[in-house]
């Protein structure tokens, strides 16, 4: 019966663009607040699209979608929630989950690391400073390293495993943004340099080219704010997918993923973000963003203009607004 209600309410939502409400959390208020955040920030004109990947510069900077999926699978969304951007670094969370599933949390801590770098996400100096350690799974070095330690030993198999895992979080087959992929592959010298440096320290599980190629494909997968919120909702619900009802990740692993997001999810803005909201989040340079309120909900946003750290400006403002208006900071009593 409940399932039937969810199917109809989701259908109704997609047809009418009207919000569906959300659970024990006083859904009307949640949706009204998400809508207020959307209206408050949709004309905010600050930040710039990433320009070091040429195809990202061409994305309409006005694109702005907000989606919320609660831990019991209810949905509320506003704006361009059907528009897609490339997932970029938000993907790193899900491939980390895959590595953890394969090798466990100790392997992640020892091989990739869980420490913030205090440096930009594509820093080479950060690797040198740590004698070849990638530091954490969310800087490029750590994400490339994560890919390289997955079980498959060649690029096509690596990519297949990564994509299937992302699809299982999304509950559907995601598409690849071929323009972004081509654009990034054509100009991937820095990531290749990072991978080669890691390899020189003996810190890569495959060849640098295989790891970087699979990693770049992973970053070019298209997602909407809806997809991001659905993917994040698995983490908000202890690894159990609230919509497909599959156990995607062992519940014991979820706190490790969320803690790693707290420490480094929005790069050098992680401290300020956590100070303001108290929740784990992850950004990508395509403008994608997820925030997880454990046990309650996931918020997915897309909006391409970025701050100086590489995080979506509107997404951070909108999510912070929702969290503070609704007192969702887990540290607030
Ligand atoms: N694909 C991008 C890169 O490798 C991802 C960076 C990001 O989203 N922060 O630079």
Textual characterization of the structure:
Its EC number is 3.5.1.2. It is an enzyme of class 3 (hydrolase). This is Glutaminase. It catalyses: L-glutamine + H2O = L-glutamate + NH4(+). The structure is a single chain. The protein folds into 2 domains: 5-88 and 222-328, Beta-lactamase, CATH 3.40.710.10; 91-219, DD-peptidase/beta-lactamase superfamily (Beta-lactamase, 3-Layer(aba) Sandwich). It is of the alpha+beta class and 333 residues long. Strand 5 and strand 6 form a beta hairpin. 49% of the residues lie in helices and 9% in strands. The protein contains 15 helices and 7 strands. The longest helix is centred in the middle third of the chain and has 16 residues, at 155-170. The chain starts with a helix and ends in an 8-residue tail after the last helix. The site of glutamine has 11 residues, from loops.
Properties at a glance:
single chain, 333 residues, alpha+beta, Beta-lactamase, two-stranded antiparallel ribbon, binds glutamine
The CATH architecture classification of the largest domain is 3-Layer(aba) Sandwich
Small molecules held by this entry? glutamine
Fourth-level CATH superfamily of the largest domain? DD-peptidase/beta-lactamase superfamily
What fold name goes in the CATH topology slot of the largest domain?
Beta-lactamase
Question: What percent strand?
Answer: 5-15%
Kindly name the structural category. Answer: alpha+beta
Find the count of extended strands (DSSP E, 2+ residues): 7
Terminal Cα separation, in Å?
34 Å
Strand order of the largest sheet: 2-1-7-6-5
Nearest-integer average pLDDT: 93
- SSE string: HHHEEEHHHHHHHHEHHHEEEH
Helix content: 40-55%
Domain count, please report it: 2
- Oligomeric state of the chains in view: single chain
Could you list the spans in which at least 5 consecutive residues all have pLDDT below 50? 1-24
Catalytic activity: L-glutamine + H2O = L-glutamate + NH4(+)
Binding site for substrate: 89, 140, 184, 191, 215, 267, 285
InterPro entries: Beta-lactam/transpept-like, Glutaminase
Subunit structure: Homotetramer.
């Amino acid at each position: 019966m409940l399932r039937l209600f969810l199917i109809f309410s989701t259908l109704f939502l997609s047809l009418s663009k009207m919000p569906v409400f959300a659970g024990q959390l006083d859904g009307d208020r949640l949706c009204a607040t998400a809508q207020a955040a959307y209206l408050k920030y949709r004309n905010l004109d600050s930040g710039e699209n990433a320009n070091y990947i040429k195809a990202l510069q061409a994305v309409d900077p006005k694109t702005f979608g907000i989606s919320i999926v609660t831990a019991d699978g209810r949905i509320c969304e506003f704006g361009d929630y059907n528009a897609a951007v490339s997932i970029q670094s938000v993907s790193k969370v899900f491939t980390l989950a895959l590595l953890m599933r394969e090798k466990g949390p100790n392997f992640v801590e020892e091989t990739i690391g869980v420490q913030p770098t205090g440096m930009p996400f594509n820093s080479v100096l950060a690797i040198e400073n740590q004698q070849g350690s990638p530091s954490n799974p969310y800087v490029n070095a750590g994400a490339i390293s994560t890919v390289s330690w997955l079980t498959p030993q060649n690029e096509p198999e690596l990519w297949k495993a990564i994509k299937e895992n992302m699809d299982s979080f999304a509950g559907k087959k995601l598409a690849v943004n071929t323009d972004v992929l081509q654009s990034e592959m054509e100009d991937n010298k820095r990531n290749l340099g990072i991978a080669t440096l890691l390899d020189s320290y003996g810190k890569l599980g495959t060849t640098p080219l295989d790891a970087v190629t699979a990693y770049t494909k992973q970053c070019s997968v298209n997602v909407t704010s809806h997809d991001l919120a659905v993917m994040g909702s698995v983490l908000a619900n202890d690894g159990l997918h609230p919509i497909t009802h599959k156990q995607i990740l062992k519940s014991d692993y979820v706190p490790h993923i969320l803690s790693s997001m707290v420490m480094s999810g929005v790069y050098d803005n992680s401290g300020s973000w956590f100070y303001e909201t108290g929740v784990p989040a992850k950004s990508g340079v395509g403008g994608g963003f997820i925030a997880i309120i454990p046990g309650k909900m996931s918020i997915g946003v897309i909006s391409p203009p970025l701050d100086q750290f590489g995080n979506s400006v509107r997404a951070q403002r909108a999510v912070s607004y929702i969290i503070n208006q609704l007192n969702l900071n887990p540290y607030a009593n």
